[in-house]
């Protein structure tokens, strides 16, 4: 019976432009049969990094919000230790207080 297989395509090498190889893999998949493949990554020096942190501002995440506020500058410093071209952004959301997004039992909605 045929087996699943993976075939890397192309012959690029890692460089300051190419950070992940192979860029193209042909997968021939058979039901119930895994296909394994390897990739190689090398971070390019000075490559720009953007990080966006999305935070749930519901009451259950209140203690985590305090930690994120404290760690904001540390996150940016860590990014800048990797590259001088680093930017960080923060966003927030609150779950809808209707089914099926949250438990609408009155005791659960107090917080």
Written account of the structure:
The chain is α+β, with helices and mostly antiparallel strands and 111 residues long. It has helices spanning 62-82, 106-109; strands at 5-9, 20-21, 24-28, 40-41, 49-56, 86-93. The strands form 3 sheets. The chain has a two-stranded antiparallel sheet. A two-stranded antiparallel sheet has the order 2-4. Strand 5, helix 1 (62-82) and strand 6 form a beta-alpha-beta unit. The longest helix has 21 residues, at 62-82. 0% of the residues are buried. The mean pLDDT is 83.
Describe what is shown at a glance.
With 111 residues, the chain is of the alpha+beta class. It has helices at 62-82, 106-109, and strands at 5-9, 20-21, 24-28, 40-41, 49-56, 86-93.
List the main descriptive attributes of the protein structure presented here.
single chain; 111 residues; alpha+beta; two-stranded antiparallel sheet; two-stranded antiparallel ribbon; 2 helices; 23% helix; flat
How many distinct beta strands? Answer: 6
Radius of gyration: 22 Å
Percent helix range: 10-25%
Strand order of the largest sheet: 1-3
What's the arrangement of secondary structure elements?
Elements: E1 5-9, E2 20-21, E3 24-28, E4 40-41, E5 49-56, H1 62-82, E6 86-93, H2 106-109
Parallel strand pairs: 5-6
Antiparallel strand pairs: 1-3, 2-4
């Amino acid at each position: 019976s045929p087996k699943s297989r993976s075939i890397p395509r192309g012959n690029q090498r890692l460089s300051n432009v190419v950070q992940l190889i192979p860029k193209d893999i042909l997968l021939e998949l058979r039901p119930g049969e895994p296909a394994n493949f390897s990739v190689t990554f090398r971070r390019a020096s000075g490559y720009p990094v953007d990080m966006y942190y999305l935070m749930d501002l519901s009451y259950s995440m209140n203690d985590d919000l305090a930690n994120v506020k404290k760690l904001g500058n540390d996150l940016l410093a860590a990014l800048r230790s990797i590259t001088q071209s680093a930017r960080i952004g923060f966003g927030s959301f609150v779950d809808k207080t209707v089914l099926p997004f949250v438990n609408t039992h009155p005791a659960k909605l107090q917080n």
